[in-house]
Amino acid sequence: MPKRDSHTIAVAVFGIAVLVVAFVMLNRVLGAGDALASGFREESAVTVSAVSAEGTVDVTIAEGASTMDIVDRLAEVGVASDAETLRTLILLTGAGSSLQAGEYTFSLSTPPAEIVRRLREGPPRIERITFRSGLRVQQIGIILEDEGYFSHEEWDEAVASAQPRDFMGDDPDFLGYLMPGTYEIHDDTTAASLLEEMLDRFGELVTPDLVDRAAEQGWSLYEVLTLASVVEREAVHPEEKPAIAAAFRNRIDQGIALQADPTVQFALTLGEGGPASVENFGWWKGELTVDDLQIDSPYNTYLYPGLMPGPISNPDIDSIRAVITPADVDYVYFVASPECDGHHLFASTLDEHNANVELFRNSGCIPDQIPSEDN
Questions:
Q1: Of 80, 126, 231, 320, which is least packed with CB atoms within 10 Å of its CB?
Q2: DSSP strand E in 73-136: where?
């Protein structure tokens, strides 16, 4: 987690002798000067939100806001319980010229020294990180480590100690439930709090209505996520997800094996040979061999028809919706388009599919050059 050097505020212990008339008078002069200057500024130099249920207030300090602007507004909303003490402390520490503009969140009745410290230090740093869809849980930890936020050990520990949510099934490591997207990283963000935020977003996007619609079709949420995780890995272009989901659901209904390469890629990373496969080929091996397709694993959808035991990746909300509301088509086959652009050709019969396969084979496409998710 990037850390910012903090300013040390030395606050003298006040004795009665320190609070002499001279300081009070000088403080009033400073306040009068601020009042005069603030008359030429916008009234919104310091804006605040309503007090939240947690007893916090969001404060936005504009560039050029005066000390009086800041102190008076913090006092008005109860952040500073004693404006005079806060103003005097700013004067004694010489902090007036170093108070920084920005967005803050304060608790009610924050101690004056803490207010000054935070205003001198500046607003919390907020960074953003995006997790693309189709990642494994372990891949998220690696990305966080590569970006310098947390070690993958911290992430693994957060996953191991997190409590399952009510909407979760039997997934032991939260695979399928960590919603992809962009997340904010604050100074106080931890691996555990980020994990909880990803679960929160899942709960917000995967609404009870969606779950009910799946149940009406005889699908549990866990089964939806299992298939959606394959759709996610197969689809390059989001607009194709409903058609890919339809093809897979039609195959399941007709008792045809899914024969999805991503499930084999996942199977290769499991068991005794898993670590070596990850080290040599990454989490998603590109070119699968004939031997790869014969790996004896319940995740190998070439050998075992129907759904796998669980998700193989974290799908986004579009893939989840696609499984619940697939395209109204009778496709059961698809193959990469000869345009080599990540699109697919779909077919309802084996003859149509074989013709599409031939188009792809004659296209000169190199599979490694077709757009896809990287490792």
A1: 126
A2: 102-107, 127-131
| Domain 21-121: CATH architecture, name and number where available | 2-Layer Sandwich (3.30)
Euclidean distance between CA atoms 114 and 51, whole angstroms: 19
Task: Give the start-to-end residue ranges of the domains of the chain.
Answer: 21-121, 127-205, 208-369
Amino acid at 214: A
User: HSE (CB half, 13 Å, CA atoms) of 2?
Assistant: 10
| DSSP conformation letters of 279-337 | HHH-SS-SS--TTGGG---TT-TTTS-S--SS-SSB--HHHHHHHHS--S----EEEE-
Give pLDDT tens digits for 1-18: 444 444 443 333 333 223
pLDDT tens readout for residues 190-243:
999 999 999 999 999 999 999 999 999 999 999 999 999 999 999 999 999 999
Q: Is the pLDDT confidence value at 81 over 90? A: no
- Quote the CA–CA distance of 372 and 135 in Å, as a whole number: 13
Instruction: Write down the pTM of the prediction.
Output: 0.74
> Distances from the Cα of 98 to the Cαs of 53, 80, 103, 186, 201, in angstroms?
31, 19, 15, 22, 38
Q: Which residues contact 121 (CB under 8 A, 6 or more apart)?
A: 4, 6, 7, 100
Note whether 133 and 315 are within 8 A (CB).
Answer: yes
* Beta bridge pairs of residue 135: 314
CB 227 within 8 A of CB 249: yes
